[in-house]
Design goal:
- With 270 residues, the chain is an alpha/beta fold.
- Helix content is 33%, strand content 21%.
- The protein has two domains: 1-67 and 139-270, P-loop containing nucleotide triphosphate hydrolases (Rossmann fold), CATH 3.40.50.300; 70-136, no CATH class.
- The chain binds adenosine-5'-triphosphate.
- Adenosine-5'-triphosphate binds at residues 13-14, 16, 18, 36, 38-44.
- GO terms for molecular function: ATP binding; ATP hydrolysis activity.
- Residues 231-247 have a biased composition (Basic and acidic residues).
């Protein structure tokens, strides 16, 4: 049984169709990245998955043992509130100091434990948020652009950390990222979203699909190809990977996938 299954999900808010007919499945231990242009519904999809938002139609099925660690795109911190990183990590439940230290160290933030939360840089705060999300040892880690604000070196370390987390906890990782070339290296599967799922599959196949190229342009495709080609020890996909080809849901033409129309959303709703 998969960890999570979405079936024909639609989300309509204030008359806006944000998601239309979105179906996807998440397996244990896989790293999946959602990519898509600004406003394509990525954060909405994540909020739906963590249960912060109800679908207007469709069905969400969660494994009964599913536990989710969530790192939001941004949090508001009151600069007048004196909270150290160590204290923040222990909220809302008390934690063993050793667990807090281990989680921060693993996220590359071990030296921040006594610092004021409001005084952290954007990149430092992201590391702390990831460490906090992992304290519960979730079966699914959900990251909404958690690498924003990180420099190149920190981004590379961030993805190594995510890979270690997956190995150590055996958890699935679902993330949103705009760093397409890095995403391609770090993910088992990529889901391309533009109100609906345009295409999904192994990174190489998605990058070669017409839907991806019409959304992100040829330059991104070339950047991805270049990045993968120069990665030491990287093997090009063989014939066996054909079975995991990108699945297209938006036709085979080169035109950009159309924005969802309100009349299309929730057509299965009762
Ligand atoms: N409560 C709401 N009512 C109406 N429209 C909304 C609501 N919430 C989000 N939207 C709209 O839904 C669309 C998708 O928003 P969302 O934040 O999910 O996109 P995103 O892909 O995460 O964008 P970005 O890459 O810019 O973070 C946007 O056009 C947004 O304005």
């Amino acid at each position: 049984m998969s960890l999570l299954m979405l079936d024909a999900i639609g989300v309509v808010r204030n008359g806006n169709v944000i998601l239309d007919d979105v179906s996807l499945e998440l397996a244990r231990g896989e790293i999946v990245t959602i990519v898509g242009p600004n406003g394509s519904g990525k954060s909405t999809l994540l909020r739906l998955i963590i249960g912060a938002l109800a679908p207007s139609c469709g069905r969400v099925t969660r494994d009964e043992h599913l536990s989710i660690g969530y790192v939001p795109q941004r949090i508001q911190i009151d600069p007048t509130l004196p909270v150290t990183v160590g204290r923040f990590m222990a909220l809302p439940h008390r934690r063993h100091q050793s667990d807090i230290e281990a989680a921060l160290t693993s996220a590359g933030a071990g030296d921040l434990i006594k610092r004021q939360l409001s005084a952290l840089s954007g990149g430092q705060l992201q590391k702390v948020l990831v460490a906090r999300a992992l304290l519960e040892r979730p079966s699914l880690l959900v990251l909404d652009e958690a690498n924003q604000g990180l420099d190149h070196r920190a981004t590379a370390e961030f993805y190594r950390h995510i890979d270690r987390v997956r190995t150590e906890l055996g958890c699935a990782v679902l993330m949103v990222s705009h760093e397409l070339h890095v995403v391609m290296k770090a993910s088992d599967r990529v889901i391309c979203l533009n109100g609906t799922v345009c295409c999904q599959g192994r990174p190489e196949r998605v990058a070669a699909s017409p839907e991806w190229q019409s959304l992100f342009g040829i330059e991104e495709r070339d950047a991805v190809a270049f990045y993968r080609h120069t990665e030491p020890g990287h093997a090009e996909p063989d014939q066996g990977e054909q079975a995991h080809d990108a699945q297209s849901h938006a036709g085979s033409g080169h035109e950009a996938p159309a924005a969802p129309q309100q009349e299309r959303a929730c057509r299965h709703a009762g």
